[in-house]
Amino acid sequence: MAATIRDVAQASGVHVSTVSRTFSAPHLVNTETRNRVLAAAEDLGYRPNRAARALTTGRTHNLGLIVADIANPFFSHLIKGAQAHARTRDYHVFVADTDEDPQVEEELIQTLAKQVDGVLLCSPRLSNRVIEKLREDVPFVVVNRRMKGMSNVLMDVGSGAREAIGHLVSLGHRRIALLAGPAGSWTSREITDAAHAVPGIDLTVFGPNSPTEHGGLALAEAVASADVTGVLAYNDLMAIGLVEGLTALGVEVPGRVSVVGIDDIVAGRVSRPKLTTVAMPAEAAGRTAVDLLLQLVGAGETATPALATLATNLIIRDSTGPVRRELRTDP
Amino acid sequence: MAATIRDVAQASGVHVSTVSRTFSAPHLVNTETRNRVLAAAEDLGYRPNRAARALTTGRTHNLGLIVADIANPFFSHLIKGAQAHARTRDYHVFVADTDEDPQVEEELIQTLAKQVDGVLLCSPRLSNRVIEKLREDVPFVVVNRRMKGMSNVLMDVGSGAREAIGHLVSLGHRRIALLAGPAGSWTSREITDAAHAVPGIDLTVFGPNSPTEHGGLALAEAVASADVTGVLAYNDLMAIGLVEGLTALGVEVPGRVSVVGIDDIVAGRVSRPKLTTVAMPAEAAGRTAVDLLLQLVGAGETATPALATLATNLIIRDSTGPVRRELRTDP
C-alpha cells in the first residue's frame, strides 16, 4: 500500500492540510515544519497526488500532445523532440493520436484540456472555428497551421515545395504532378499554393489524398497514365507508396518519372531508389512548440501569441534524374 | 470562459455537491434532480472535471502506455492498436516514451500511476524488482516480458527466432551471427536462448546493442570480418542499419551475407533488398493488452493475472538467399 497524505501528517505531527500546503505552496510553510514534513514523506515513500495538487495549484506539470497519426515517422520525431525538451523543464508530455479523424481530435482536446497545463496540437484536421472555441479551455500551441492570434510553429514548406519543383525544372521536367495531402491540412494548402505559383510548368494536382503509403500506391495508375515526368508528393510515405506502385507497373523511377517526397523519414533513405525529399525539422519543431507553450502557461491571460517559422531544405538523392530526351518538351 | 460547476449549480437551483454527485455517483441523486442538473450542464456546455471526478470515483477513464521508443515503428503499431481498441471501451490512452532509459521509465510510471486507471508497460528496461514495487500503486499489464503473478502479453519470439534460423539453415548457412538487443530486454534474452538451442550451427552473439538503425550500422565491420554467412538481428531497424553498413563496405546482401530482421516494419518492406523478417503482431498485442488491463481495472484487488501469447511468423523476402558454394561448410 502506498503511503497516504494522512500517514505523512501523522508521522510529522501536523495537520493533513499542512502536508498538502508543503507540496502545493511550500513558501507558505515555515522552514522547520516543511523540512519535517518532507523528511517524513521521503521516509514513507509518499508522493503527492498530482491530480489533487492540480486542483489546488492549477498546475499539473503535464502537457498534452495531439498528432494526426503516431505511426507516421514525421510525428514520432516531433514527439521525441517535444518530450526530451519538456523533460528538461520538469514537464511530462502525454501523447494522443486522432487517427486523422477531426471528431476524435475534438474529443481528445476536450479530455486533455482539464488534465494538463497546455496542449500542443500538431497538423490539425479540425476547422479554425472549432479550434478557436476549444482554446478557451486551455493554452494551445498549433504546429503546422497558421492561425492569427495564436502561438504557431510552422515549417517553411512553401519554400521547400518551390525548391523541390525548381530541382525538377533544372532537370528538364515541365509536366509535373502534385499529390496533395488530406483535406483540412494547412501544409497541403501551402504546398499547392506554392506549386501553382511556379512559372513555366504544367501542373496537375491529384487529391486530396490519404497521407499514407497506401494513399501514394493508389495514385500510381493515374500518375502513370497522366502525361507527367516529375512528381512532388505531400509526404515521404505517399512518395514511397507511389514509387512502389510505379515500379509494379513497369514505370521506372527516375528513368521515366522523377519523384520527390517531403519530411525526410528513414524509410525514404533506405528505399530504392533513395528518395529525394524536402527535410522538415520535426524534432526542432517539437522543441520550439514546448518553449512557446510554456511561455503561454507561465504568462496566463496576459500571454502574447508567438510565431516561429523553421526552415526546410531539399535533399537530393536517387529518385530524381534528368528528363529523357524523347520525353522532353520545351514550352 | 468554460462553465463551472458553480454555474451549473446556480442554473439548476441545487448545491454544488449535488452537481458533483450527479456526475460521480448518479444513482445517489433522485431522477428529477439529476435530469435538471444534466439539462443545465448541457445548456451551459459544462464538462465535469475528470481530475476532480477521479478523486471521488477513483476512475479517470484514462490509460497510460509506456514505450521504450515512440519512433520505433514497432511501438507505433502497438500504440495504434491499443488506442483504437481503448476508444471502443470509452477509454483514452496517453502515451509516454522512456527513450530506452530505465530511470525515465520509473519516473513516468510514478507520474502516471495517480492519473490513470491502469498502465500498459511495453518492453520494459527496468528490473523485475522495481516493476513489482511500482505496481502496488496502479494496475499494470506488461507487454514483452514474462513476469509471474502479473498480467502479460507476450509474442512468441522464441519460435520466431527458431523459424528464422531454420530458414537460414535450409539455405545452407551454418555460421550464423545473432545481433542481440538492449540490456534488460526480455525479448532479446528469449531470442538468444532460442538461437543457442538450435543444433548444428556455429553461433556468434554480438551485443547487447542499441536497438536502432545506428546500432545495426555500427556492427557492419564486425559482422563483415566475422566468419559468418547468415545474420539474425534483434529487430528490423538494426537489420536495415546492418544492410546499409555491409553494402557500404562492398559486402553483398544476400550474395555474401543473408540478413533476417524481426518486427516487419514498413521500412523493411521498401528497403532494397526487401527484408526477410519475423512479423510481430504489434497491433494485436496492443488490443489484447488493453483487454487484460481493463479486466484488472474492473476487478480491483480480486483480479487474476492473465497471460496471452501471440504467434509470430516468418516472412521470406529478398535479404536471404542460398549460401555461396565457395562459402559452404558442412559441419
TrEMBL record, chains A, B:
CDD domains: HTH_LacI, PBP1_LacI_sugar_binding-like. It comes from the Bacteria. PROSITE patterns: HTH_LACI_2. Keywords: DNA-binding, Transcription, Transcription regulation. Residues 3-57 form the HTH lacI-type domain. InterPro entries: HTH_LacI, LacI/GalR-like_sensor, Lambda_DNA-bd_dom_sf, Peripla_BP_I. GO terms for molecular function: DNA-binding transcription factor activity; transcription cis-regulatory region binding. PANTHER family: HTH-TYPE TRANSCRIPTIONAL REGULATOR GALS, LACI-RELATED TRANSCRIPTIONAL REPRESSOR. This is LacI family transcriptional regulator. It comes from Herbidospora galbida.
